[in-house]
Amino acid sequence: MKKLIIAAGTGFLGQVLVNQFKNKFEEIVILTRGKSQTIDGIKYVNWNARTFSGWESELENVTVLINLAGKSVDCRYTKANKQEILLSRIESTKILNKAVLNCKNPPKHWLNSSTSTIYRFSLDKQMDEVDGEIGNDFSINVALSWEKAFFKTETPNTLKTALRTSIVLGKNGGAFIPLKTLAKIGFGGKQGKGNQFISWIHEDDFANAIDFIIEKEITGVINIVSPQPTRNADFMQKLRKAVGFPFGVPMSAFLLEIGSFFIRTETELVLKSRNVIPKRLLENGFEFKFGDIDKAFKNLLRK
After folding, report:
1. Mean pLDDT of the chain
2. What is the pTM of this model?
3. What is 187-248 written as a DSSP string?
C-alpha cells in the first residue's frame, strides 16, 4: 500500500495506528493542529479541521484515509463543550468530504471515527450493527449527526466505513491508565450499581481490526469492540486481581457525581451500559487476540 493519511493522528489511537502501519505503507501523513514537519519519516501537515489551507492536496493518490478528529468527551458537558464536541466531529468530516470530492485521484478507502455509544443503554440486549437499537440523548445524537455528515455526501470513487469504536485499552494511553491507577490505590471497586456493561477492545485488536477492514474492503458501519462486553463490577474485580490489590472501594453514583465534577468529566462515561458486540467483524472472519478481559489485562500489565 502506498499512502496513508491519519487526520488528527497525534493522540493515543493515532500512535497505535502509526505503529501498526509504519511498515505497511510507503508514506504516512498525519494531519495535525501542530506545525508542519517530518519526524522519523512521518510527515506532519498542519490543518485546522475546518477549512482548506493546502493540506487537502495531500489526499491525492491516497490508499487509505483515517479520520480520528473530534474533541475528547472526557470533559464537563457545558454548553460550550457540547457545541465543540459536536462541531469538531461534524466540521472535520464535512471538510474532508469536500476535499475528497475535489481530488482527481481520491482516497480509495476512508475510515471515519464513530462510537459504540450510539446504541441505547442496555442491560439485556446485545447491540450489533443490524439489530442494535439507537437511543436518544446528547452523546447518541452527536454520533448520529457525525455518521450522517459522513455518509450523506456520496463519494463514488471512495469506499466509506464508520468505526463504532468502544473504549480502547492500551499501555500508553486511553482509559486503562487511570483505571489501573485507581485499582492500585484501593479505589478499584464497582462504579455505580456495577451491573452496567463495558464494551472494550485491546489496542492490538483495535489496530488489527482496522487493518482487517482495509484488507477486506468492509464498508458501512462496523462495531470495533471485543466479543465479550463485561459488567462493570466484574471488569473492576478482574482489574484488581490483575494489579494484585486485594480490595477496591466501590463508588456510588452520588460519589461519582462529586468526583467527576472535581476532575471535570461526566459520570456517563462509566455509568452508561454499553452492551455492544462485533457481529460484522466476526462474520467476516476476524480473530481477536485478546477477546477475554483477563488475557487483555495480563498483556497490558506485562512490563
Report:
1. 96
2. 0.96
3. --S-BTTS-SEE-EEEHHHHHHHHHHHHHHT--EEEEES-S--EEHHHHHHHHHHHHT-S--
